[in-house]
Every structure is written in structure tokens, then in C-alpha cells.
Specification:
hpI Integrase, Chain A; 361 residues; 3 strands; 3 domains; three-stranded antiparallel sheet; 15 helices; mainly alpha; DNA polymerase, domain 1
Length: 361
């Protein structure tokens, strides 16, 4: 039986995530699922006793399953549960320091998923490359729906926008002449965490040309307050100006993306993999840490760490190319450029020194 006090603490934590860290409803739902595993593991025992509970949480997760699927949790899911749990206990040890002396940073660090045979097999990098984009936008587009999806994939790759933001941008948010996008919630754009930023497009002429063709068409038939990925008339002959919103627009884009991939002879991947492709392409062009930072900010990440851990992992081929060229005095192509210059290092050192002085005073 789940401890009522433990449950109360998880509810306080979720409220903290919503009010202080400003997590969105979908993210909070995922955190709630993770915490359910934690509550069931602790059972009637207090969270203050967590370091002495056996089996440990990572061991417990090997056999935990409450959705009737009849198979173990994936390593990825267990890693997310452990990550949420580490954050929860860090918060708890701060909020309930008097009762949670046994919960130390050292113990929290042990909350890592147990690796099973097969978990060490690296997954294939799954992204849309620039070549994939070019294959899709090169397809003939006789119907308006085909023109719309071609322009959509081009814009997603150029901008690196999340799909939720893309399907809510208005025409007046787009300035292709200056290659900028206003991802402003005040203009109706649904950004993650309701962040506001004016972001920039990659300078890839052939993709920009496709986006520009669609943008020009929209401006000739729609008000500037209309969506850039609009609802179309049922007969497909024009934009539905009576539709002020586009119901199920993310699902509609997914259907059209699948069809486009099939026509281009490409494996279907989710729309988010276009964002991954944008990041990998951009990061390969980075020459300095300043470039790296610009890419991170343009993707509206909170820190460089997010960009580096999620998007900057080299593919096996990239790793092989770099290792194969070690000691030969020259790195291959785009991987050859230095990432950090002396000026950036000096700036980082100054900022770090200032932060340390602030903590000591």
C-alpha cells in the first residue's frame, strides 16, 4: 500500500515543478508516471528511509510494469524514471533536510538504470539529413497539399523549430528576407515552456526557395494573421480562410510527412527528427564555441548541455572518420574546424571567476 505521506510529498514536488520550474502539462504527466514507480517501490516505507530499501530502485525497475504489457521496461524509460527520481530526492533533501539526513548526494548519484544484455548496443542515429530534405522538396507538387508539406519540411529543417511551434506560427511571424521567425507566445506560437525568441533560419538557398514560394502564395491569398501551415479547402483548391484555427494540425502534418517520405523512398521518422537533423547539420558547421552557443540559443535551449547531450552526439561514421585521421595532421572536411578559440576561453574564464567570487561573498 502506498504511503499517504509519500504521495503528499510527490504532489508537492509536482506543484513545485509547475509553479517554479514552469514545466508544461505534458511534461508533468510524464513526471507523474515516473513518480508512480517510485511510490510503488517505496510502498509503505517513508522516503526518508529510501537508501536502506531493498531491492534498490534501479533493481526494482527491472521487473516493474503496471500497464499489462507483459515485458520489461525499456532502458530508456528506466533512465527517465531514475532521472526524475534523482531530481525529486535532490528537492526533497532540501525541503525536508531535518528528516532526510540519510539522503545524501552520493546516494542520489547511485540512482542509475541497471544495464541488461543488449542495452549496450548503440541505437542507430535517426534523423532527417539535408540530402533527405532535398529529396523531398524536389518531388513534383501539383496539389496544394503537396506544396504545403514540401514547404513545411523545408521550413522545419531551416529553422529547427519544434513541430508544436511550427504549426502555430502566423504569416506575420515569418520574415524570409531576413531569415527570422518570431516564436512569440504573444503572437499565438506554442513554444516549449512558453519561451519567447526571434530565431534564425539556416542559409540553404534551395530550401529557402521552396519556403519562399509558399510564403509568397500565402501572402497573396491570406491575411497576415493566418497560419503559415493553414487549413485547406476540402477540394484542395485553396486556403480555408474561414478556419481561424487548424484542428489536429500536428496529426495532419504527420499524415502528410508519411506520404511525402513514401513518395521520396525514404524511411518515415517523426517530425522531431527534422529538428534533430537541423541540429546535427548546424553543429557540423560550427567553427568556434560562439557558433555552438548561437546554435543552442537558436534552438531555444536553456543551456549548452542540452544541445551537447541530445543533439551533438557524433554518428558512428563521424567517429570513425575522426579516429582514422588522428595523427595525420588533417581532420576530414567539416569536422576539421576548431571549436574553441582563445577569445571565447578568456570570456568563459572571466565569467566563471565572477560566479565563484559571487558565491564566496
Amino acid at each position: 500500500m502506498i504511503s499517504r505521506e509519500n504521495y503528499r510529498l510527490t504532489q508537492r514536488y509536482l506543484a513545485y515543478l509547475a509553479e517554479v520550474e514552469q514545466l508544461q502539462a505534458k511534461t508533468l504527466t510524464n513526471k507523474r508516471v515516473h513518480l508512480r514507480h517510485l511510490l510503488e517501490w517505496a510502498d509503505e516505507r517513508s522516503f526518508a528511509q529510501a537508501p536502506s530499501i531493498r531491492p534498490t530502485l534501479p533493481r526494482y525497475l527491472l521487473t516493474a510494469r503496471d500497464d499489462g504489457a507483459g515485458k520489461p521496461l525499456s532502458h530508456e524509460h528506466m533512465a527517465k524514471v531514475c532521472g526524475t527520481t534523482r531530481h525529486f530526492f535532490t528537492w526533497l533533501s532540501r525541503e525536508e533536510s531535518g528528516r532526510c539526513r540519510a539522503i545524501t548526494p552520493g546516494w542520489i548519484a547511485t540512482l542509475e538504470p541497471v544495464r541488461r544484455p543488449g542495452d549496450d548496443v548503440p541505437p542507430e542515429r535517426s534523423i532527417y539529413s539535408l540530402e533527405d530534405m532535398r529529396a523531398m522538396v524536389a518531388l513534383p507538387a501539383e496539389k496544394l497539399t503537396e506544396r504545403r508539406v514540401r514547404a513545411a519540411v523545408a521550413m522545419l529543417f531551416l529553422s529547427g523549430m519544434r513541430i508544436g511551434a511550427f504549426v502555430t506560427i502566423r504569416i506575420d511571424c515569418v520574415d524570409l528576407a531576413h531569415r527570422t521567425i518570431k516564436q512569440w507566445p504573444s503572437m499565438g506560437v506554442h513554444t516549449k515552456g512558453s519561451k519567447t525568441a526571434t530565431t534564425h533560419l539556416l542559409d540553404i538557398p534551395d530550401l529557402l526557395e521552396v519556403a519562399q514560394g509558399w510564403d509568397s502564395y500565402l501572402r497573396s491569398v491570406s491575411p497576415l494573421s493566418a497560419l503559415w501551415y493553414p487549413a485547406l479547402l476540402r477540394d484542395g483548391t485553396g486556403v480555408d480562410l474561414a478556419a481561424t484555427s487548424h484542428p489536429n494540425r500536428r496529426a495532419q502534418f504527420d499524415v502528410e510527412l508519411r506520404a511525402l517520405c513514401e513518395r521520396a523512398g525514404l524511411p518515415y521518422r517523426s517530425a522531431h527528427k527534422i529538428r534533430h537533423g537541423h541540429a546535427v547539420y548546424a553543429l557540423k558547421q560550427a567553427q568556434t564555441l560562439a557558433d555552438y552557443k548561437a546554435i543552442s540559443q537558436n534552438m531555444m535551449h536553456a543551456s549548452l548541455q542540452t544541445t551537447d547531450t541530445v543533439y551533438a552526439v557524433l554518428t558512428p561514421d563521424d567517429v570513425g572518420a575522426r579516429i582514422g585521421n588522428l595523427g595525420k595532421g588533417q581532420a576530414p572536411d567539416e569536422l576539421a574546424r576548431p571549436l574553441v578559440d582563445d577569445a571565447v576561453l578568456d570570456l568563459l574564464a572571466t565569467k566563471l571567476s565572477e560566479k565563484l567570487k559571487g558565491r564566496l561573498t
